[in-house]
Sequence to fold (382 residues):
Amino acid sequence: MLRLALKMLLGDRAKYIMLVGGLTFSALLMTQQMAVFTGLVSWTTSHMRNMRASIWVVEHRVEQVNETKALRDTDVNRVRSVSTVDYAVPLFQGVLKARAADGSDKQIQLIGLHAGTLKGRPTVMVEGGDEGLERLRIANNVVVDVLASKRLAAGLGRPLQIGDTFEINDREARVVGICKTEPHFFGYPYVFTSYDQALQYAPRQRKMLSMILAEPKEGHTAVEVAQQISDETGLRAYTVPEFEKATVDWVWKNTGIPVSFLTTIILGFVVGVAVAGQTFYSFVLENLKHLGALKAMGAGNGLISAMLFVQAMTVGLIGYGMGVGLTAVFGFMVRPIGQPPFLISIETLVGTLFSILVICSLAALFGILKVARLEPAVVFRG
Fold:
């Protein structure tokens, strides 16, 4: 009987194509929007993956990693004085203007690393390697990421290379390495230098320290040490998972990004319900006599409901597969460009599959309710 149900479904090509097409569009819209949203959210926490540390110590009012409220220089020693801290180093981060080869100004994310340890240094070097990182201790030397090497080369005709120079706040910066980083939430390219050199590039102000990177002593967890730092210094210490969660929560509470994407995702779900429900209901109406004949021959409502459910789930799984496939094609197309952010997670795939199955279940329910009220005698009416 289930094979007969599939033959009935495939026999009406127009309805079959319309059902698959509607569910494909619904799956594509939900998966693509969720993948872009997930990618965008991942950009908000890229700082912590570009500058790795177990504990991030910030001013007590800081709520997310892209926010900077300056600390006092003495705060580094206060954190170091905590008994469970292995070491703590200063970090400068700020958005500055750099002058490109054609004279135009470009905004950059300048990162100043502790010269002794280079804690927070980029992990993937494209050019220059470890030697380039070691040369950051020399005055005016910087490591730029791939995006910066392109943006700051405007008018040069090629990306920046090792040995090229540009200006940051009218001070010379010499490229000694090129690294690969994850994109910044605001789209700024990364430029790394030593902490002391970053203070020379940045406009002077009373407090220049942005953050403190710390590591726990052996035998102590990051959560335990972060809590102790907060208790003893009055500063705010985050572990990486805590800072990521705080940043994502801040995006949800203070931006319209989640609402915008969720609206589109819900729209995709509604379109799927509308198209699949209406089309499947129309399909059932056109096959009422056949279904009535099956009931007249002894088929119960349970068996016929199972047939309709199999039909709905079949088109749902096909539509889901095609929608996810088209989303993957979209992802491969935008990958070389880097825009928009795109990240398909297992949660996204499972969520879309669940949504499509719900849509198909609702569509099947419309037909099942109609069949449940069907009189077998309808097959004998003219």
Q: What stands out?
A: DSSP finds 13 helices and ten strands in the chain.
